[in-house]
Amino acid sequence: MTFLNKDYEVPKSNSNYTKLQDGENTFRVLGSAIVGWQYWTKDKKPVRQKEVFTETPEDAKLDNGQFKPKHFWAFPVWNYEEKAVQIYEVTQATIQQAIMALVKNEKWGDPKGYDISITKTGADLETKYAVMPNPHSELVEGITEAYEAKKINLDALYKGENPFGEEKKEDTDGHTSPEDLAKDF
User: Fold this and answer.
1) Alpha-carbon torsion 157, 11, 31, 98, what sign?
2) What are the beta bridge partners of residue 34?
3) Distance between CA 28 and CA 39 in Å, rounded?
């Protein structure tokens, strides 16, 4: 016997959040997005709200001495690599702009109807992202059931709570459909 079985694979991260890896990352959007602004505290915790921050909070981690909150989108996805329902939080403007262009394009539209592949290359300030839609397709069997079983409440992110709690809230004005996102641009 060898040290490790030849079929052995290192276990996946088992995270509830999508983290883009180097290379191609493919996912399917499963639900509507929430949008807002976020910053990180000195204790490395995210703080999110729907409106832009107008003052620098005392607990904010500063970036080169400046308070720089980021605009974010958060939405549920099926991560094909992880084979899991996760939340994908997007703060990169290049990714947001590319997805928004797809949403606004009548041939692509709502990203719940097709997979999206994001290729990540480079590192740190040299990181680049290429966003590519895949042909429209039906969801693979079992993904809808896995999503419904997760009971995700994205609005909990605004309160600093776990969005994977026991209760799932229905869509509220905090949720933004891709069509509504397109109206804002």
Assistant:
1) positive
2) 74, 175
3) 26
Separation between Cα atoms, residue 172 and residue 177, nearest integer Å: 11
SS3 76: strand
List the beta strands (DSSP E) in 2-153: 23-29, 33-40, 46-49, 70-79, 84-90, 114-121, 128-136
**Main-chain dihedrals φ then ψ at residue 26, nearest 5 degrees:** -115, 135
Q: Interior CA angle at 155 toward 151 and 159, to 5°? A: 120
pLDDT value of residue 166: 56
Of 1 and 114, the structure prediction assigns the larger pLDDT to 114
Query: In degrees rounded to 5, what are phi and psi of residue 155?
Result: -60, -20
